[in-house]
Amino acid sequence: MAPLSNATGTTDAEVPALPGDGLREAVVADLRSNIGEALLDVRLDPGVDLWARVATESWRDAGLALRDAGFRYFCFLSAIDWMPSPFGRGEDDPSAPPPERRTEIVQGYTGGSTRFQVFARLTDIDRHVGITIKADVPDDDQAVDSWTPVYAGADWHERETHEMFGISFRGHPDLRNMYLPTDFEGHPLRKDFPLLARIVKPWPGIVDVEPLPGEPEEADTEEKGE
Amino acid sequence: MGLIDKGLMPKPLTSLFNMGRSYSLWVYQWGLACCAIEMGAAFGSPRYDVMRLGVIPLPASPRQADLVVISGTVTDKMAPAILRLYEQMPEPKYVISMGSCANCGGPYWDSYSVTKGVDQIIPVDVYVPGCPPRPEALLEGVVLLQQRIKNEDMGARWRGEGHKAMVREPIVVGGGPVE
Amino acid sequence: MTDLIDRQKLSYIAAQAADARLNVELETEGMTLNIGPQHPATHGTLRIIVRLDGEQVVWADPSAGYMHRGYEKLVEVRTYPQVNTLINRIDWLGSFANEVPFILAAEQLMGIEAPARAQWIRAVFFELSRIANVGLFLGDLGVQLGAITPVFMAFRDREYVLNLIEGATGGRFHPNFDRIGGLKDDLPKGWIDETRQVMKKQRQFADEIEDLLFGNKIFQDRTRGIGVIPAAVAQSYGLSGANLRASGVDWDLRRDQKVALPYDQLDFKVWTHPDGDCFARCWVRLQEFREATRIVEQLLDGIPSGPVMAKVPRIIKVPEGEVYVSTENPLGEMGYYVVSQGDLGPFRVRIRTASFNNISVVPWVLRGVYVPDVISILASLYFILGDIDK
Question: Under an 8 A CB cutoff, do B112 and A198 touch?
Fold first, then answer.
């Protein structure tokens, strides 16, 4: 049948080779030449991926530099709370005293010194390479510059990060809740926000001790809990 | 129909009305999440055709529906909308809660934004368990609801004791015969 | 594409000028309209608040969150196999595709390689979930533009694919079949032959839909030139999948990124369209649907024999590290940024869903369109609420 569209349709063009190490190192060198001292730490897994951490004041400048270097595809932007959760996984016996838990904050790749970090992922479509870029969020004043002038899509991501973590973005046109109702209290993705259902009734582990509907209660139910 | 609420309608006539009502249920087209796809398969696919039971999935407005199937997760943000839409349905109305999320919160039982079961907001007649329940399970729920409607006391419902009567024993699919 | 945009701009400017003149003469006020959260035409509970001036949208604001279930918090309290069960339900039409990037991320952190047979079978199920997902898109496309017949055909043909998935995994959708290190089970006997028959049927379905819907004058009038998204805007918003390729950007993660699935051994085309309007997006998805059936046939011809599960410890503890893995899911690019601190469950997972970015372009694209075109644009952008709201 006659084609419905005058599109060229398929792409049988030469596929560029996947990036080798030289490409990622060139990206790092390019970024360093643009923002200089603000590039604090880099982790490069050859052939795999690239991480970089920049100073908080140059968060927006780093975004601009990367966008002008070819990273025009905005993947996502979010934050990480590095504090270990004081509630564990909600599988502990409430009658027993709470177990010992780790409390010191350990950051992941490319280090850092604060509890919160914002991070973003950008992709360069022509050179087929992606970069994850992070920045510390100062503990006293939890705010960083907004990326909305750099990428238009950062708008929604920053709204979500703000409501989930409480980090505000300077220069964002309209920072209101994305997912949660307006009168929601608290910032859910912070580690000190408890999941109340798990505290009220802890998960009993692997064993299901209730009978299925329709089955009679067994007279001799043996305790099979944790 | 003053005879109905005084309980003066003869039994054969009320059972005729009940049979008529149970075989012409109009379902409100509303799905929330994954269970909506199974509900769509039950309603819209020729394999699990629900129209052969007399259930017509046509109304897109609550004002013309007698049955609503809450299929999918109910979140706290969505709950006022569900209540509002339920109140817009005219009596006599029935609710089938489909899937674990609507029954009790389901796999998201510990979430901060999920309502643990739609029965916290509106009264439910039939619970259909599953994640997602097969379309045949939903059809069985509809058939059990039809059996209950046939045995219903129209007078009690008209007098407004309908909801009190519903609280006694909601039906669970797979939980045995219904009287 | 530029002259299409120019023509559209001129016609909108002319229409707006005419309407503005009329509004001044009649002294009309704008109206705020709520589309959703319950609406027969939106795929679920999306609420769009539009401010209208006459019949034109002046300002649009999608209000998501009516299906927000808190995935990123829930996965922090679950172990890796439990997370696998839960993330099936993010994009609930093509569910197997949600598990794949997460499992690949966990395997990359653990340093485990699933055996070749498992990777090929994973790719088969990945494409089957694409067929199930896009098949329903083609049906829903009709319903949203007013044609009701395609949706019955879509559900009927989707049943064949769901039969296949159920035959191998036990679940119609939400199969929960992928495991860290491979798959849960091998394929049953006779499954491969039946899949070949089903792929032929799916191609017939694609031809039927193209006949029924795409050549229809009403469909063409309602989708050509509507909702044009230029390539630069698409990239800065992070659109992915067919939306990006319909704006002319040649980017497909199956071909352009190194993934463990065996796409580099297959021969498939990547479909693009230069226009960037609603018709382009629908057309690209139709072609991808057909391409997926061909990919499945190539995969079935080449499945190697061997085990389906690598040697993994019984209790899975993933060592410390961070990784981002994304794949070309039916809706677009879906990725998981997994941060692990050596525990039974992940420390932080950032779920990058395709529909979140796809719908973030709605305030930009809906300026100046008429109300019926709002529905066409939403239909062509194709989102799943679980994907937007996580």
Answer: no
Helical (H) or strand (E) element with A133: strand A129-137
CB neighbour list of residue A7: distance below 8 Å, 6 or more residues apart: C272, C273, C274, C275, C280, C283
Q: In this predicted model, which residue has the larger pLDDT, A96 or C237? A: C237
- Distances from the Cα of C316 to the Cα of C76, C103, C346, angstroms: 15, 12, 11
Residue C313 near residue C289, CB atoms below 8 Å:
no
* CA dihedral of C295, C296, C301, C306, whole degrees rounded to 10: 120
SS3 B76: coil
CB-CB under 8 Å, C44 with B31: yes
Name the residue with tokens 């707006």.
Answer: C16
Per-residue pLDDT reduced to its tens digit, A157-200: 999 999 999 999 988 888 888 888 888 888 999 988 888 888 87
* Closest chain B residue by Cα to residue A202: B110
pLDDT in tens, A210-225: 666 565 655 433 333 3
For the residues of C266-302, what is the DSSP string, one character each? S----B--SS-SHHHHHHHHHHHHHHHHHHHHHHHHT
Task: State the chains in contact with A (3 or more Cβ–Cβ pairs under 8 Å).
Answer: B, C
Q: Is the CB of A188 less than 8 angstroms away from the CB of C235?
A: no
- What lies within 8 Å, CB to CB, of A195 at 6+ separation is A87, A90, B110, B111, B112, C73, C74, C77
B131 interface with C at CB cutoff 8 Å: yes
Residues 16-55, chain B, touching C (beta carbon < 8 A) = 29-34, 36-38, 40-41, 44-47
Chain B residues close to A188, C-beta within 8 Å:
112-113
Query: Mapping DSSP to helix (H, G, I), strand (E, B) and coil, where does residue A121 land?
Result: strand
- pTM, whole model, 2 decimals? 0.87
Count of beta carbons in the 10 Å neighbourhood of residue A206? 8
* C-alpha closest to that of C49 among C374, C390, C383: C374
Which of C271, C269, C277, C226 lies closest to C245 in space, CA to CA? C271
Q: Under a CB-based contact definition with an 8 Å cutoff, are residues C50 and C57 in contact?
A: yes
pLDDT for C126 equals: 93
For chain C, say whether B108 makes contact (Cβ under 8 Å).
yes
Residues in chain C: 390
Determine which of A180, A185, A196, A199 to mutate to test the interface with B (most B C-beta atoms within 10 Å).
A180
Token digits of residue C299: 């995969």
Q: Exposed/middle/buried for C318, CB within 10 Å: 0-12, 13-18, 19+?
A: buried
Q: What are the chain A neighbours of B176 within 8 Å (beta carbons)?
A: 214
Tell me, what's the ipTM? 0.86
- Give B114 to chain C, closest Cα distance, Å: 6
Element containing residue C207 per DSSP (H, E): helix C191-209
What chain B residue is nearest to C155 in terms of C-alpha separation?
B45
Residue range B38-54, pLDDT digits in tens: 888 888 788 888 888 88
| Angle formed at CA A82 by CA A76 and CA A84, multiple of 5 degrees | 135
C170, closest residue in chain B (CA to CA)? B134
Chain position carrying tokens 């139910």: A221
